[in-house]
TrEMBL record:
Name of the protein: 26S proteasome regulatory subunit-like protein
Keyword Magnesium: no
Location of the region described as Disordered in the Swiss-Prot/TrEMBL record: 1-64, 547-574
Organism of derivation: Chaetomium thermophilum (strain DSM 1495 / CBS 144.50 / IMI 039719) (Thermochaetoides thermophila)
GO biological process: regulation of protein catabolic process; ubiquitin-dependent protein catabolic process
Biased composition range(s): Polar residues: 47-57
Bias (Basic and acidic residues) ranges: 1-24, 547-558
Amino acid sequence: MPGKTPDKEPVENRGYRTDKDAKAKGKKTAKKEGEDEMTVVVPPSKTPKQNSVTPPANDTEGDVAMGDIDEAAQEGKVDPVAQTINDIKNNFALLDRAVAHFDARFSLRALRSISSIRKRLTPDVLGQVIAETYNPTSSRAVVAKQMLAAIGRPDVVLGRQAGSDMDIDSEAKPSSKNGLVKKDPLPEVDVFLGILTQVLLHDTKQWQSGYEFSQSLAERVRALNRRTLDSLAAKVYFYFELFAEQIPPLPPSPQSPILLVRPPLLRALRTAVLRKDIDTQASVIVLLLRNYLLTSHISQADLLVSHTQFPENAANNQVARFLYYLGCVRAIQLRYTEAHEHLTAATRKAPSSACALGFSLSATKLLVVVELLMGDIPDRAIFRQPAMEAALRPYLLLVQAVRVGDVDNFEAINNKHEATFKRDGTYTLILRLRQNVIKTGIRMMSLSYSRISLRDICVRLHLKSEESAEYIVAKAIRDGVIEATIDREHGYMKSKEVGDVYATREPAEAFHDRIRACLALHDESVKAMRFPMNPHRLELKNAQEAREREREMAKEIQEGDLDEDDLGGDFDGM
């Protein structure tokens, strides 16, 4: 072609060095310096700082310096402190939306984020958030200083501006005199930061400081009458109770600080009922039941349940806790049937996640003991769950001893695992099982033998005399445990013939109970669904305004005030 220079490469390839040339260049340099051969292949950088205007730094031979690669990799990493601060401040926007839309779902989203934030929460991070949120000349500065003093950072200066490297939405507005003046945060933000302070003190095991701070925070929350604080106030009272339980002397000592928590909790319950605060009401009722059970005040717990009504629309977790504690109260009161119903519902409502394994395990242990006290044998599938198998091993041995009716084996297992049963809080209930073991043994013998002497019963059950065996058999017949008669002249027990159980009403009653439980679960699930408050009113308002405009337009058309030009086009009629 005319005008083409054969010795020169095309314009689009000028200054471009291929990988092959780079490798050859690197090999030549390595041989020149007397070192081992090394090939460095650097892909084109994607960082915004290295563009066509500012090329990457090269060494004397044209290779890319390795230090620049390390710096670029370090710049790509996210600072964990800045990320934690950003995550905390992002929840402020959720709280603002909760107040603006009067929707508690945004507050619940902010509370759910605490579980991920608490792993990275430190006093320095929380102190920096508080310093960047509050204005030193504001009336809320007292609240900020109280939180800083609680986490051990009283020297932090308020009004600190966020760094330019953090992408955080600032709530500041320009002013001609002071530059940037921050607006006072909402009370919801105050309480949310107070909850983070409680979490930090709880994780660092500062029980006394956490108790004092929670006491002041609970009083401040109770003084605020804002419905958007309901879910946050429930969490405040929750940690208030936890701090009181860890301060010595520990419960069930009569000098335990948990006795001092009851009056504030009762006042909070009364206020929540008057304000129709469902979240706080459910949380405080559960905390009071827990408080009474820790000090063995069963009568006061029963009075609380009888004089209060647990809210129907409470959260599922609070309902599960309430049913568990109510089952504990009913089991101690010898009302095993009610306790069995409450504990069964609690295990069904318990969350299936791994974080709720402790609650499910406690409820299952108590449910097993209650079933044994009722004279039933729990299903073996309960003890085969992988997550609970090791913890339920002592209770499996206990069930086997009760099922066989071996009194000696039952007492041996009880003595061996006494510490475990006491730690679980089921030891006093297990002591009641000795009579059930004897009744179970008698029932097994009545099913195995049509006639058995009282002497053999005494030997098999390891009783002291035949008279005690006769009394126990007579009581079992009266309680309906067995269907038999006692022949005192010949000294034996004669069992009656067992009919077909399917010819009775027992299968139909069991089927009816299951259907009733499923229907109750469906009704509770429907009631627990959350929707925006009064969204239909806006739709009705818009529809009503549209109808009024149509009426006015039709009236004006009839009167002749409007023509086609006013309507903006052709008008055929209505």
